[in-house]
Specification:
four-stranded antiparallel beta sheet; nine-stranded mixed beta sheet
Length: 327
Protein backbone atom coordinates (compact mmCIF):
# COMPACT_ATOMS: atom_id res chain seq x y z
CA UNK A 1 0.00 0.00 0.00
CA UNK A 2 1.51 3.33 -1.09
CA UNK A 3 0.85 6.51 0.88
CA UNK A 4 2.27 10.00 1.07
CA UNK A 5 2.63 12.76 3.66
CA UNK A 6 2.70 16.43 2.69
CA UNK A 7 4.93 18.11 5.25
CA UNK A 8 4.01 21.49 6.64
CA UNK A 9 5.72 23.68 9.20
CA UNK A 10 2.96 22.85 11.69
CA UNK A 11 3.36 19.10 11.19
CA UNK A 12 7.14 19.28 11.53
CA UNK A 13 6.90 21.42 14.63
CA UNK A 14 4.55 18.93 16.30
CA UNK A 15 6.97 16.09 15.50
CA UNK A 16 10.04 17.82 16.87
CA UNK A 17 11.02 20.63 14.53
CA UNK A 18 12.30 21.08 11.01
CA UNK A 19 15.68 19.65 11.92
CA UNK A 20 14.19 16.22 12.72
CA UNK A 21 15.63 13.10 11.08
CA UNK A 22 13.55 11.33 8.45
CA UNK A 23 13.39 8.04 10.39
CA UNK A 24 12.45 9.79 13.63
CA UNK A 25 9.71 11.78 11.90
CA UNK A 26 8.23 8.65 10.33
CA UNK A 27 8.25 7.00 13.76
CA UNK A 28 5.83 9.69 14.92
CA UNK A 29 3.59 9.08 11.93
CA UNK A 30 3.72 5.27 11.84
CA UNK A 31 3.37 4.18 15.48
CA UNK A 32 2.68 0.56 14.50
CA UNK A 33 6.20 0.21 13.12
CA UNK A 34 9.41 0.05 15.12
CA UNK A 35 12.29 2.45 14.40
CA UNK A 36 14.23 -0.50 13.00
CA UNK A 37 11.41 -1.41 10.61
CA UNK A 38 11.20 2.19 9.42
CA UNK A 39 14.96 2.37 8.86
CA UNK A 40 14.71 -0.84 6.83
CA UNK A 41 11.91 0.68 4.75
CA UNK A 42 14.20 3.61 3.98
CA UNK A 43 17.27 1.49 3.19
CA UNK A 44 15.14 -0.77 0.99
CA UNK A 45 14.05 2.22 -1.09
CA UNK A 46 10.43 2.15 0.04
CA UNK A 47 10.57 5.79 1.18
CA UNK A 48 11.05 8.78 -1.11
CA UNK A 49 11.37 12.46 -0.29
CA UNK A 50 10.25 14.70 -3.15
CA UNK A 51 10.28 11.61 -5.42
CA UNK A 52 13.91 10.76 -4.65
CA UNK A 53 15.42 8.02 -2.45
CA UNK A 54 16.85 9.27 0.81
CA UNK A 55 18.68 8.22 3.95
CA UNK A 56 17.36 7.66 7.45
CA UNK A 57 19.62 10.45 8.73
CA UNK A 58 18.27 13.07 6.33
CA UNK A 59 17.18 16.24 8.15
CA UNK A 60 13.74 17.48 7.10
CA UNK A 61 13.71 21.19 6.41
CA UNK A 62 11.13 23.19 4.52
CA UNK A 63 8.00 21.75 2.99
CA UNK A 64 8.51 18.35 1.38
CA UNK A 65 6.45 15.40 0.30
CA UNK A 66 7.26 11.98 1.72
CA UNK A 67 5.98 8.95 -0.18
CA UNK A 68 6.28 5.44 1.15
CA UNK A 69 5.15 1.92 0.36
CA UNK A 70 3.58 0.55 3.50
CA UNK A 71 5.01 -2.81 4.57
CA UNK A 72 3.02 -5.73 5.90
CA UNK A 73 2.12 -4.86 9.47
CA UNK A 74 2.30 -8.45 10.62
CA UNK A 75 4.78 -8.37 13.48
CA UNK A 76 8.23 -9.87 13.15
CA UNK A 77 9.09 -12.63 15.61
CA UNK A 78 10.47 -11.25 18.87
CA UNK A 79 12.88 -14.07 19.63
CA UNK A 80 14.79 -16.83 17.89
CA UNK A 81 13.73 -20.43 18.39
CA UNK A 82 16.77 -22.75 18.18
CA UNK A 83 16.28 -25.53 15.63
CA UNK A 84 18.44 -28.52 14.74
CA UNK A 85 18.76 -27.52 11.07
CA UNK A 86 21.55 -29.32 9.26
CA UNK A 87 24.40 -26.92 8.50
CA UNK A 88 27.23 -27.53 6.04
CA UNK A 89 30.15 -25.83 7.80
CA UNK A 90 33.00 -24.99 5.44
CA UNK A 91 35.18 -23.19 7.99
CA UNK A 92 35.10 -22.35 11.69
CA UNK A 93 37.46 -20.85 14.24
CA UNK A 94 37.08 -18.61 17.30
CA UNK A 95 35.84 -15.61 15.31
CA UNK A 96 34.35 -16.62 11.95
CA UNK A 97 32.10 -19.34 10.54
CA UNK A 98 31.53 -20.02 6.86
CA UNK A 99 28.39 -21.94 5.89
CA UNK A 100 27.51 -23.49 2.55
CA UNK A 101 23.88 -22.33 2.40
CA UNK A 102 21.59 -24.66 0.46
CA UNK A 103 18.99 -23.22 -1.92
CA UNK A 104 15.61 -22.63 -0.32
CA UNK A 105 17.00 -21.72 3.10
CA UNK A 106 16.03 -18.22 4.26
CA UNK A 107 18.89 -16.47 6.06
CA UNK A 108 17.02 -14.95 9.02
CA UNK A 109 13.49 -14.82 10.46
CA UNK A 110 11.15 -12.07 9.40
CA UNK A 111 7.52 -11.28 8.74
CA UNK A 112 5.73 -14.50 7.84
CA UNK A 113 8.86 -16.60 8.42
CA UNK A 114 9.48 -16.93 12.19
CA UNK A 115 11.52 -20.12 12.01
CA UNK A 116 13.16 -22.66 9.72
CA UNK A 117 15.92 -20.21 8.81
CA UNK A 118 19.71 -20.31 8.86
CA UNK A 119 19.68 -18.19 12.02
CA UNK A 120 17.46 -20.73 13.81
CA UNK A 121 20.11 -23.33 13.06
CA UNK A 122 22.98 -21.05 14.08
CA UNK A 123 21.59 -20.32 17.55
CA UNK A 124 21.05 -24.06 18.05
CA UNK A 125 24.65 -25.04 17.29
CA UNK A 126 26.69 -22.02 18.40
CA UNK A 127 26.84 -20.52 21.89
CA UNK A 128 28.34 -17.22 20.76
CA UNK A 129 27.27 -15.05 17.82
CA UNK A 130 27.55 -11.32 17.17
CA UNK A 131 24.53 -9.11 17.80
CA UNK A 132 25.42 -5.96 15.84
CA UNK A 133 22.53 -6.62 13.46
CA UNK A 134 20.04 -7.12 16.27
CA UNK A 135 18.70 -10.10 18.15
CA UNK A 136 16.85 -11.51 15.13
CA UNK A 137 20.02 -11.61 13.00
CA UNK A 138 22.76 -12.99 15.28
CA UNK A 139 26.02 -13.48 13.42
CA UNK A 140 24.63 -12.28 10.10
CA UNK A 141 27.08 -10.00 8.28
CA UNK A 142 25.65 -10.34 4.76
CA UNK A 143 22.90 -12.30 3.03
CA UNK A 144 22.16 -14.52 0.05
CA UNK A 145 18.83 -14.72 -1.77
CA UNK A 146 16.69 -17.64 -0.65
CA UNK A 147 17.14 -19.39 -4.01
CA UNK A 148 20.90 -18.78 -4.18
CA UNK A 149 23.25 -21.36 -2.68
CA UNK A 150 26.84 -21.01 -1.52
CA UNK A 151 29.24 -19.39 0.91
CA UNK A 152 27.93 -17.07 3.59
CA UNK A 153 30.06 -15.65 6.42
CA UNK A 154 28.94 -15.61 10.05
CA UNK A 155 30.58 -13.58 12.83
CA UNK A 156 30.96 -15.06 16.30
CA UNK A 157 31.58 -11.75 18.05
CA UNK A 158 30.99 -8.06 17.50
CA UNK A 159 34.64 -7.27 16.85
CA UNK A 160 34.88 -9.71 13.95
CA UNK A 161 31.44 -8.62 12.72
CA UNK A 162 32.47 -4.95 12.59
CA UNK A 163 35.70 -5.88 10.82
CA UNK A 164 33.96 -7.96 8.16
CA UNK A 165 31.22 -5.36 7.70
CA UNK A 166 33.91 -2.75 7.11
CA UNK A 167 35.51 -4.94 4.46
CA UNK A 168 32.17 -5.32 2.69
CA UNK A 169 31.58 -1.57 2.90
CA UNK A 170 35.04 -0.79 1.51
CA UNK A 171 34.53 -3.45 -1.18
CA UNK A 172 37.77 -5.24 -0.39
CA UNK A 173 36.06 -8.61 -0.03
CA UNK A 174 36.23 -10.57 -3.29
CA UNK A 175 33.17 -12.59 -4.28
CA UNK A 176 32.81 -15.10 -7.10
CA UNK A 177 29.47 -16.53 -8.19
CA UNK A 178 28.81 -19.30 -10.67
CA UNK A 179 25.68 -19.12 -12.77
CA UNK A 180 23.96 -20.68 -15.75
CA UNK A 181 22.41 -18.07 -18.03
CA UNK A 182 20.20 -18.16 -21.08
CA UNK A 183 21.72 -17.40 -24.49
CA UNK A 184 25.13 -16.80 -26.00
CA UNK A 185 27.11 -13.81 -24.80
CA UNK A 186 28.57 -11.55 -27.50
CA UNK A 187 31.60 -10.75 -25.36
CA UNK A 188 33.48 -13.42 -23.38
CA UNK A 189 34.11 -10.99 -20.54
CA UNK A 190 33.11 -7.53 -19.46
CA UNK A 191 31.71 -5.21 -16.83
CA UNK A 192 28.06 -4.48 -16.20
CA UNK A 193 27.41 -1.09 -14.63
CA UNK A 194 23.87 -0.14 -13.81
CA UNK A 195 22.31 1.52 -10.78
CA UNK A 196 19.61 -0.60 -9.14
CA UNK A 197 16.43 0.32 -7.32
CA UNK A 198 13.12 -1.26 -6.40
CA UNK A 199 10.35 -1.27 -8.94
CA UNK A 200 7.62 1.14 -7.90
CA UNK A 201 4.78 -1.15 -8.89
CA UNK A 202 6.31 -4.21 -7.20
CA UNK A 203 8.80 -3.63 -4.35
CA UNK A 204 9.91 -7.29 -4.48
CA UNK A 205 11.48 -6.68 -7.91
CA UNK A 206 14.59 -4.60 -8.64
CA UNK A 207 15.48 -2.91 -11.90
CA UNK A 208 18.14 -0.83 -13.61
CA UNK A 209 17.40 2.82 -12.86
CA UNK A 210 19.77 5.78 -13.00
CA UNK A 211 18.27 7.14 -9.78
CA UNK A 212 19.04 3.91 -7.89
CA UNK A 213 22.13 2.78 -6.01
CA UNK A 214 25.39 2.28 -7.87
CA UNK A 215 26.05 -1.33 -8.83
CA UNK A 216 28.88 -2.99 -10.74
CA UNK A 217 29.44 -6.61 -11.77
CA UNK A 218 32.31 -8.13 -13.75
CA UNK A 219 31.62 -11.33 -15.68
CA UNK A 220 33.60 -14.04 -17.46
CA UNK A 221 31.93 -16.54 -19.78
CA UNK A 222 33.32 -19.97 -18.94
CA UNK A 223 31.48 -22.16 -21.41
CA UNK A 224 28.56 -21.79 -23.77
CA UNK A 225 26.54 -23.90 -26.14
CA UNK A 226 23.67 -23.10 -28.47
CA UNK A 227 21.17 -22.12 -25.78
CA UNK A 228 22.73 -21.64 -22.35
CA UNK A 229 26.07 -20.52 -20.90
CA UNK A 230 28.14 -21.02 -17.74
CA UNK A 231 29.31 -17.68 -16.39
CA UNK A 232 31.45 -16.50 -13.48
CA UNK A 233 30.24 -13.27 -11.87
CA UNK A 234 32.37 -10.99 -9.69
CA UNK A 235 30.14 -8.37 -8.06
CA UNK A 236 31.99 -5.29 -6.85
CA UNK A 237 28.97 -3.93 -5.00
CA UNK A 238 26.45 -5.97 -3.04
CA UNK A 239 22.99 -4.79 -4.00
CA UNK A 240 19.96 -7.00 -3.53
CA UNK A 241 19.42 -9.25 -6.60
CA UNK A 242 22.38 -7.50 -8.26
CA UNK A 243 23.72 -10.37 -10.38
CA UNK A 244 20.23 -11.48 -11.36
CA UNK A 245 19.23 -7.95 -12.45
CA UNK A 246 22.52 -7.24 -14.23
CA UNK A 247 22.56 -10.53 -16.11
CA UNK A 248 18.94 -10.07 -17.17
CA UNK A 249 19.75 -6.51 -18.33
CA UNK A 250 22.21 -8.06 -20.83
CA UNK A 251 19.35 -10.27 -22.16
CA UNK A 252 20.87 -13.27 -20.40
CA UNK A 253 18.66 -13.96 -17.37
CA UNK A 254 19.79 -16.61 -14.91
CA UNK A 255 18.40 -20.04 -15.80
CA UNK A 256 15.37 -20.74 -13.61
CA UNK A 257 14.99 -17.14 -12.41
CA UNK A 258 11.25 -16.61 -12.88
CA UNK A 259 11.34 -13.15 -11.32
CA UNK A 260 13.74 -11.77 -13.94
CA UNK A 261 12.67 -13.58 -17.07
CA UNK A 262 14.66 -16.80 -16.82
CA UNK A 263 11.75 -19.17 -16.30
CA UNK A 264 9.40 -21.15 -18.52
CA UNK A 265 8.75 -18.29 -20.96
CA UNK A 266 12.37 -18.58 -22.13
CA UNK A 267 11.70 -22.10 -23.41
CA UNK A 268 9.37 -20.83 -26.13
CA UNK A 269 10.46 -20.62 -29.74
CA UNK A 270 12.69 -23.69 -29.78
CA UNK A 271 11.99 -26.96 -31.53
CA UNK A 272 9.62 -29.08 -29.39
CA UNK A 273 12.34 -31.47 -28.19
CA UNK A 274 14.48 -28.62 -26.87
CA UNK A 275 11.50 -26.87 -25.26
CA UNK A 276 10.46 -30.02 -23.42
CA UNK A 277 14.02 -30.70 -22.26
CA UNK A 278 14.37 -27.22 -20.80
CA UNK A 279 10.92 -27.32 -19.18
CA UNK A 280 11.94 -30.54 -17.47
CA UNK A 281 15.24 -29.00 -16.33
CA UNK A 282 13.48 -25.92 -14.95
CA UNK A 283 11.12 -28.14 -13.00
CA UNK A 284 14.03 -30.16 -11.63
CA UNK A 285 16.09 -27.20 -10.42
CA UNK A 286 13.10 -25.14 -9.17
CA UNK A 287 15.28 -22.08 -8.41
CA UNK A 288 17.70 -19.72 -10.10
CA UNK A 289 20.93 -21.46 -11.15
CA UNK A 290 23.18 -19.14 -9.16
CA UNK A 291 25.78 -20.19 -6.59
CA UNK A 292 28.08 -18.12 -4.33
CA UNK A 293 31.14 -20.19 -5.14
CA UNK A 294 34.01 -18.38 -3.44
CA UNK A 295 34.67 -15.54 -1.03
CA UNK A 296 38.08 -14.07 -0.18
CA UNK A 297 38.60 -11.78 2.80
CA UNK A 298 41.09 -10.63 5.39
CA UNK A 299 40.66 -12.68 8.55
CA UNK A 300 39.56 -10.31 11.37
CA UNK A 301 41.95 -11.84 13.93
CA UNK A 302 44.96 -13.17 12.00
CA UNK A 303 44.95 -10.38 9.39
CA UNK A 304 45.79 -13.02 6.80
CA UNK A 305 43.89 -13.34 3.53
CA UNK A 306 41.65 -16.38 3.49
CA UNK A 307 39.57 -17.85 0.66
CA UNK A 308 36.63 -20.18 1.22
CA UNK A 309 34.96 -22.11 -1.57
CA UNK A 310 31.69 -24.03 -1.77
CA UNK A 311 31.45 -26.79 -4.41
CA UNK A 312 28.89 -26.30 -7.14
CA UNK A 313 25.73 -28.18 -6.09
CA UNK A 314 24.35 -31.12 -8.04
CA UNK A 315 21.24 -29.35 -9.35
CA UNK A 316 23.35 -26.68 -11.07
CA UNK A 317 25.88 -29.24 -12.28
CA UNK A 318 23.05 -31.12 -13.96
CA UNK A 319 22.14 -27.98 -15.91
CA UNK A 320 25.81 -27.32 -16.66
CA UNK A 321 26.11 -30.78 -18.21
CA UNK A 322 23.39 -29.83 -20.71
CA UNK A 323 25.29 -26.86 -22.19
CA UNK A 324 26.50 -28.98 -25.12
CA UNK A 325 24.04 -31.81 -24.71
CA UNK A 326 20.92 -30.20 -26.15
CA UNK A 327 20.62 -29.89 -29.91
Amino acid sequence: MKKSIQLTSKLLSAAGGGNIRLDKFLSTQLPDLSRTQIQKMISDGLVQVDQSPSKASMKLEGIKKISYTFPDLELEPTQIEPEAIELNILFEDETVIAINKPPGLVVHPGVGKPNGTLVNGLVHYFDQLSDLNGKLRPGIVHRLDVGTSGVILIAKNNTSHANLASQFEKRTIKKEYFGITWGLWKESSGQINGAIKRKRTDPTIYQIDSSGREASTRYQVLNQGDYISAVAFYPKTGRTHQIRVHSASMHHPIFGDNKYGGGTNKTKGFIPEVTQRFKHSLKQIARQALHAKRITFMHPATKQEIAIEAPIPTDIKNIQDQIHGIC
